[in-house]
Amino acid sequence: MKMENRKNYQNLSKQYVCQNCGIAFSAPMHCGHAMHIAESNGQTEWNCWMGPNCGKVPFEAKCDSPSLTPV
Asked: How far apart are CA 42 and CA 47, in angstroms?
């Protein structure tokens, strides 16, 4: 991973809000930084900023159609 991309992933938001239901989410932490949302094989999951091979956590939606926005 290029150094520029690493800096972008290291500064990810730690808080998200669903625009459909208004519920706030805290991003899980991994390797000292917030994880980011990614799609993989039709599943939504939190991925480590170093990549999904380093760490991933299933995303548990609180509504039928989540639309997360960083806070």
From this structure: 14
Amino acid at 50: M
Listed by start position, the domains of the chain span 3-70
Full-model pTM: 0.75
**CA torsion, ordered 2, 51, 31, 19, to nearest 10 deg:** 110
**Rounded distance, CA 63 to CA 20, Å?**
8
Residues 15-71: tens digit of each pLDDT: 999 999 999 989 999 999 999 888 888 888 999 988 889 999 998 888 888 888 888
The whole-angstrom separation of Cα 23 and Cα 26 is 10
Cα 2 versus chain centre, distance: 20
